[in-house]
Amino acid sequence: MKLAVLISGSGSNLQSFIDDCARGALPAEIAVVLSNKPEAGGLARAHAANIPTLVVDHREFESREAFDAAMLEALAPFAPDLVILAGFMRILTPDFIAAFRSRLLNIHPSLLPKYPGLKTHQRALDAGDSEAGATVHFVTEELDGGPPVLFARVPIEAGDSADTLAARVQLREHQLYPQAARWFVEGRLELCGDRALLDGEALPASGADLDTI
Ligand code: NHR
Ligand code: GAR
Asked: Catalytic residue among 47, 58, 108, 174, which?
């Protein structure tokens, strides 16, 4: 199965995919890495792993529709079976989502449905939450609202800042995301209407818990 990984930043989640593919833990090939930012650190990770890269800079387009059309055109020759949003920071238009419906995953740094959108760690701290986490979900038109697949909880500790919490959550992300992708690559995970199915059975509304699978 061929993956396309979309990034905007350092690409530590991309690295977990590169490493898992290399050691055979994820039976897939990363066909291409696309960044909307020319300076994204993840591009160097892709180069180091001999993975083709694309830069489609959103600032060069007049509209979200034009930007998404350019990404679709750039990705088309690689014919990805699964598109992985890994710290990709541009909201996608319905046309992009339609092109990859049911084969588009995101990792979001909160326990969805809590804290969709940005600044999740600061919001969890401000709310006095005792735990945070990350959730892998199918991407739909509704921002961070597509069916959850798999989540991992992370404790919030006294003295945490958004940065220390983010670092703790990211360590779990690197286990969580390849596991969800593995289910998809193995043909066990599918999107059916507004539910995610694993082995043909509906997953819980908040997804499966990485600690209990
Ligand atoms: N697109 C759709 N249609 N649906 C989702 O669920 C999406 C999506 C695109 C990205 C990732 C998401 C996250 O995990 C994601 C999910 C960016 C923003 C955002 O507000 C919000 C959520 C997510 C990603 N982006 C600003 C925008 O105007 C730009 C912010 C920036 O460039 O730093 O696009 O959190
Ligand atoms: C990850 O923590 C991911 O959950 C988050 O950005 C980070 C990317 O790190 N995603 C979002 O905030 C999406 N809006 P990485 O570039 O090192 O993988």
From this structure: 108
